[in-house]
């Protein structure tokens, strides 16, 4: 029986490891070159200079406002049949490029027409501070509740949907603290207290908690929606995979269950793709996609973005306004 050639086997292993290292180095070089090219072309920004485009805005204030756009929606329209703009990590304004997802304040977002908020709270000894991962966002849940309550009292024709989840803590028990904050900073009767999708008439002037945590019902359950949130974008070379996920879900929404809310996140991030860079590449594609659909009056549900601009918010709102106007004419 011939003894195995251990030296040859060892050589093959070393050769394989060497090839793997070379491939990793080549991939790293390719990604570095891609990032440089995108910066030089102006596709993504490497400076602190603010950008205001029709699809993307990281300036401090929106170009124009949409204060009470829901006023024209028929009262008997289910909320699940409405197309509306939202923001991902709504309060993530601080912490550097990997933590920041917005530049407008909560008040500015609401006044610009945003009606879906993505709120993340850290729970410590009954306190609920706003976080994006490790980054504290210089606010607590009471600030959010006060801001939304003030807005709804000024514009009672509107409604605000609020996804609420625990972040950067793992207590798994924020229900009691959430109820305490609601009683201290808002009004219990300002909430929609049902798992059912409300009509526009039932929703006006109310906060609809989309409950992404355990405990008795405070509103609707977040997981009851049809959600596309493929947020992992390892590098900018993976942006097209992210866009394909967004595209597929938006294409499914018009023919989907009209009694179920559709929620599509266009946001994404990764180690080599921070939220700003991804948004600067995804938002233009989203803008062009929606512009091509403007005459079709389709239901897309909630479109949730990083760094949205006033024109793309207006475009999303216009789908609903056209449909409402069409209904009134009939």
TrEMBL record:
<protein>
    <recommendedName>
        <fullName>Phosphatidylinositol-specific phospholipase C X domain-containing protein</fullName>
    </recommendedName>
</protein>
<feature type="domain" description="Phosphatidylinositol-specific phospholipase C X">
    <location>
        <begin position="75"/>
        <end position="212"/>
    </location>
</feature>
<dbReference type="GO" id="GO:0006629">
    <property type="term" value="P:lipid metabolic process"/>
</dbReference>
<dbReference type="InterPro" id="IPR000909">
    <property type="entry name" value="PLipase_C_PInositol-sp_X_dom"/>
</dbReference>
<dbReference type="InterPro" id="IPR017946">
    <property type="entry name" value="PLC-like_Pdiesterase_TIM-brl"/>
</dbReference>
<dbReference type="GO" id="GO:0008081">
    <property type="term" value="F:phosphoric diester hydrolase activity"/>
</dbReference>
<dbReference type="InterPro" id="IPR051057">
    <property type="entry name" value="PI-PLC_domain"/>
</dbReference>
<dbReference type="Pfam" id="PF00388">
    <property type="entry name" value="PI-PLC-X"/>
</dbReference>
